[in-house]
Amino acid sequence: MMMGPERLVAELDAIDRLNDELDGIVLLKSCEVDILEDGSLDMPDDILARLDLAVCAVHYKFNLPRREQTERILRAMDNRHFNILAHPTGRLINDRPPYDVDLERLMLAAVDNGCFMELNAQPDRLDLTDEACRMAAELGLKVAISSDAHSTTGLGCLRYGVDQARRGWLTADDVINTRPLTALRRLLRR
Length: 190
Known about the structure:
Elements: H1 5-21, E1 30-34, H2 45-48, E2 53-57, H3 66-77, E3 84-85, H4 103-113, E4 116-120, H5 130-139, E5 143-146, H6 158-167, H7 181-188
Parallel strand pairs: 1-2, 2-3, 3-4, 4-5
Helix pairs in contact: 3-4, 4-5, 5-6
């Protein structure tokens, strides 16, 4: 189900109220945002500015030519509210091949823009591959291991992401969600 701007604003307001009441825990405000075909994001900048992090992803038009798909994502990364590229190749194991994209170019641009890439731990994705994790580390790009859980039962998939990161020789320093909150917030500032 797509979340429109009005519903997101209501949820952000609710999280702000909850954070005012909580002691010893902070809920980060985030949203998975679509990267449109022209490279713009599907939420307005004034709403994106309220997020602690924006996880941006390609969800359609997987068949664009390599150059166009790469440029689409590069344009999205230019948005100062873009933090993490979700499921960077769009693959679904045994169901959908990765879309054609220049992953190394995207990784270099992510480093230059202060962005990160998701290592999606869903067993049907495991996107980034272990080889791509290794390339990210060699380029100085940090990743976020994500369960991509749509319910609490999916949180257990994080272990697959940790295993994938280890296969790619990533260390805790290569993974942004190993950081304490203040260090994570510093990393997410662009």
